[in-house]
Structure formats: structure tokens, C-alpha cells
Design brief:
Number of strands of chain A: 8
Oligomer: homodimer
Order of helices and strands of chain A: EEEEEHEEHHE
Strand content of chain A: 35-45%
Largest sheet of chain A: 5 strands, antiparallel
Distance between the termini of chain A: 48 Å
Helix content of chain A: 25-40%
Shape of chain A: elongated
Number of helices of chain A: 3
């Protein structure tokens, strides 16, 4: 068994197949406050006051949207560099609709890629985004199994 | 339109139906470093050094596991209180297998509910967990669409 203490992935060699495992632990801190520990760091989670919490942390469900944006953002950063299609800056906004009845799920998700700069190499930027959306971003792939995901690219001056 | 500035949910009244929207924005901070902003707070995301990052933040994909554990943890905390089945403490551990080929997704997820204390009201505790898993936890419902999810309950002395 090969482990990398700096990474949340534990590599287990079994029958010559590499298995990658991610692991986190959430601990109760009273009321609706929780601390989530991953090898790389901690997130504090809490409910809103109207839901019995104290509003001292992040809402857990919306962390899925952070996961989605973060995953695709890393693909795009990496691909833009490899393709030599650098931009001044970029942001990814995720807006998701939550169903009304329990269990409440995200059924429609919009991912907006916003690029800031000038002289954009738009063909390459769009290729980078499409590669992430269609082939590389695992979170995007997981989201497509339960939600309708739409994407949009927007360009802004620096 | 009714908005609650303290919550990540924006309520939009359309045709007498209530629509709830969650929104986050991720901004690039250079290399593979990103900052995710939700109304309740911020998360710093980074890749491992071997993946081009600096190891200064959380891995984005594993935030889905934090979302899962946090969502069901809140249900359990709330239900145990309502059922008067308090425990000394509890933790939720999530262990997930990531597939090897791109796009890498979680295909097997194990959720372990660990209760610490004494004189456990086990029937009520197990009912609380089952209600979350089967009916209340939206993240659990979303995960079931792409992964095989198993759950386990463990009891420990205080």
C-alpha cells in the first residue's frame, strides 16, 4: 500500500490495478456546527439560524457547486497554459436550482466561464472549456447524472 | 423577488411556485490556486504539487464528500434532538473510490456514522440515520445517481 500523506488520495495496489481513495471526516461541534477534515485542510459547516444553526460556517449542499467550479477551473487553468492561450484572469460562476420537496436536489445547473483580458485566443479558450466539460472534469460528469447542466462562456475587458 | 442576504438561497416567486437557487463563484489566483466565494464564506482550493499546484488549499473533488457528510450530519443532529435520542458525540466518515480514467468519478462511496456515548437509544438513532439516507439528504440522493452508496453505523464508548 502506497500512501501520500500530502494528498487526499491513498493509492492501494491490488492485483496490479491502482485504486484511488478519497477520504474525509466530519465531526459534530454542537447544534448544527460541524468541522470537516481532509488531509489538505478543514472546512467549517453550519446551518442558517432559521434552520437551527448559528450561521458560523458554509452550507454543505452548496459545497457541491464549489467542487464543480473548482474541478473544471483547474482543468481550464492547466489547458490554457499548455495551449499557450493565457488570459488576464478568469472566474467560474455556478448557479443551481434546488428542488422544493425532500430530498432536495440540484436539477438545473448553469456554469458560466468568465474570461478577462484582451486579444483572446477564443478558439483555444473554447477548446479548453469543452475538453474540461466533455472529457476531463469528473464532477461535471457526476452532475450530469442528476441535473441538466448548461455552460456559457463570457469575455470581458481586463 | 425575495432575497435573504444571509443565506446562499435566493427565493424567486414565479407563478406562485417557490424556486430556490444556490450560487457560488470561483476566482483564479494564479497557477492552480482558486478562491470559492459563497454568501456564507470562502474556501481556498489548490492542486497537489505533483499536479501543478502548491498544496495551499483543499482538493475540489473531495469537497463533494464533505458536502455529503455535512448534509446527512445536519439531518442526524436535528433528528436526534427531535427524537430525544441524544448522543455524547458523533462523526461521519466518508470514503470514496475514484475511477482511474478521465473523467474520474466516484463510483463507490461508503458513509460510516460513528456515535460516541453510552445508553444509546439505538432504535431511534438508526431511524434518524435511515430517514436522512432514504428521505431527507439531497446530497445522498444525488450521489446515488452515479455511485454505489453504502452506509454503516458504529457505536463507541464516550
Amino acid at each position: 500500500m502506497l500512501t501520500n500523506g500530502k494528498n487526499s488520495c491513498k493509492f492501494v495496489i491490488q492485483n496490479n490495478d491502482k485504486i484511488m481513495i478519497n477520504k474525509i471526516e466530519v465531526s459534530w461541534k454542537g447544534q448544527m456546527l460541524f468541522e470537516s477534515v481532509a488531509p489538505e485542510g478543514t472546512v467549517i459547516i453550519d446551518a442558517a439560524e432559521e434552520a437551527g444553526g448559528q450561521g458560523k460556517g458554509l452550507r454543505p449542499k452548496a459545497l457541491m457547486l464549489t467542487s464543480l467550479a473548482g474541478c473544471t477551473a483547474m482543468d481550464v487553468a492547466s489547458l490554457l497554459k499548455k495551449m499557450r492561450a493565457e488570459v488576464g484572469n478568469f472566474k467560474i460562476e455556478v448557479e443551481a436550482n434546488l428542488t422544493e420537496e425532500h430530498p432536495k436536489v440540484y436539477d438545473k445547473v448553469k456554469v458560466i466561464y468568465k474570461f478577462y483580458g484582451e486579444d483572446f485566443k477564443k478558439d483555444k479558450i473554447e477548446k479548453a472549456v469543452n475538453l474540461s466539460v466533455e472529457s476531463y472534469c469528473g464532477v461535471m460528469e457526476m452532475f450530469r447524472k442528476f441535473a441538466e447542466v448548461t455552460t456559457e462562456i463570457q469575455y470581458f475587458d481586463k
